[in-house]
Amino acid sequence: MLLEAKNITFSYTKKKTILDNVSLGIEKGERVALVGPSGCGKSTLSQILAGYMKPDKGEVYFDGKLLPEKGYCPVQLIYQHPEKAINPRWKLGRTLTEAWEPDQELLDDMGIEKEWLTRYPIELSGGEMQRFCIARAMGPDTKFVIADEMTTMLDVITQAQIWELLLHIVDKRNLGMLVVTHNPLLAERICTRVIEFDKM
Amino acid sequence: MKKMNRRTKTVMLVIIIAGILLIISAAGLLMNPALYEPNYAAKKLPPCAAHWFGTDYLGRDMFCRTIKGLSNSIMLGTMAAVFSAFMALFLGIVSASVGGRADKIISYFVDLVMGVPHMVLLMLISFSLGKGLKGVVIGVALTHWPNLTRVIRGEVLQVKNMQYVKASKKFGKSNFQIACHHIIPHVMPQFLVGLLLLFPHAILHEAGVTFLGFGLSVDTPAIGIILSESLKHISTGMWWLVFFPGIMLVAVVMLFDKLGDNVKLLIDPSSAQE
Ligand SMILES: Nc1ncnc2c1ncn2[C@@H]1O[C@H](COP(=O)(O)OP(=O)(O)O)[C@@H](O)[C@H]1O
Ligand SMILES: [Mg+2]
């Protein structure tokens, strides 16, 4: 098992339990989609799987070991709102190199243009920002990518472009992937297995 | 000529105000002490060409004394405000990022100090430290950090939960790196404005505590001393002894306040396009 969540329970407030004893396993070589209606807890689970939040109960294992709390996380999250995942005060060149130094090949793969590096986030479109978020998360120690409704906020053409770019890199690097979406068509097309949130 | 936009006007205003305050401070610092020494030949003169603000019962030139006093107050205010603001920056960041018990303890002291009237606390601190310059500076500094601490704590709590800060942590960045690269730059505007807005408080409280006799010693030309001395003589009709120093104190305090407000306008990005 590459990424495994065991008996995860989580709630933001005492009133409502979002995740109740949820378990999930993803094998090496699999590409899994997680689908479910809006507000059911997909993003919450993604954040827990990527180590952004600690579950109230249960554990997350990567490659047989507990997900590390400190240091570079092998499971990286691509967030739904790229503008929130980028420091608005930094030029994009700085954002791009915060985690590692991407080479020219990756920038070409991601379709990142040189002149964007000296701009601030407000001077870029959502799709352009999302390319930076992806490139930033593709460091050599990244083994698994969680894409949480990564393209929901983008127009159809940009969506297709970004997915093509990401899948290309994921194939090239042989990374594990979890795709969170509420679009069943997208899930069918790019994934080897579809998990419905309610049936977990 | 192109019409000035608001931003340019604000920049000009900031430069002019800062210039006036700097000139007053420098004038006081470099002033020859002979200028405000007693001169028994010129006692109790009302304002005239030679003595713009008049002279007092010892024949001291009130204009020079006032400038010297303001300059002293500004220096003192600078020390106290800088000390206070850095204390607030440190405590605010610690409170928000360490959380738990540290947060509780800091918040408790914030509430405690804010609950006691500044003047009372100032008198106590200044008195227990033996009055004088040290007592006043420490007293003013120790009474003025809580407000800014609260503001900074709130800001840090907010930015700490931003997606880009959480992501940074998952890229293996340490808390220290995150504080230096994401958090401190984020609170810098609030810090600078808070620092500037501390000045008027610091100066007024310094004058106040000195006026009440718990501050600087009577031989320093400080505004508080000048005012409390002059009040004793106001019944003899020497109105200028109180009027000019008082007006100047109010003017300086208002200038600092205006400076803070305008810098706030400059830093606030939502007003950048106006
Ligand atoms: N930070 C938060 N604090 C409190 N409740 C939250 C928070 N984030 C999400 N929720 C709630 O948790 C539930 C699941 O949210 P989320 O995981 O974002 O769902 P999804 O991604 O499937 O749309 C929703 O009801 C949402 O209102
Ligand atoms: Mg979601």
Concise overview:
The complex is a heterodimer of chains A (200) and B (274). Chain A is α/β, with parallel strands linked by helices and 200 residues long.
Task: Walk me through this protein's architecture.
- The complex is a heterodimer of chains A (about 200) and B (about 270).
- Helices cover about 30% and strands about 25% of the residues of chain A.
- Chain A has a 5-stranded parallel β-sheet, with helices on both faces.
- Chain A is α/β, with parallel strands linked by helices.
- In chain A, α4 runs parallel beside α5 (about 155-175).
- Chain A has a single domain (about 5-200), classed as P-loop containing nucleotide triphosphate hydrolases (Rossmann fold, 3-Layer(aba) Sandwich).
- Chain A has 6 helices and 9 strands.
- Chain A starts with a strand and ends with a strand.
- By secondary structure, chain B is mostly helical.
- Helix content of chain B is about 75%, strand content about 0%.
- Chain B has 9 helices and no strands.
- Chain B has helices at about 5-30, 60-100, 100-115, 120-130, 130-160, 165-170, 175-210, 225-235, 240-265.
- In chain B, α1 (about 5-30) crosses α2 (about 60-100), α2 (about 60-100) packs antiparallel against α7 and α7 runs parallel beside α8 (about 225-235).
- Chain B is elongated.
- The model of chain B has no long low-confidence stretch (mean pLDDT about 90).
- The interface of A and B includes residues 73, 81, 100 and 139 of A.
- Bound molecules: adenosine-5'-diphosphate and magnesium ion.
- The site of adenosine-5'-diphosphate has 10 residues of chain A, from α1.
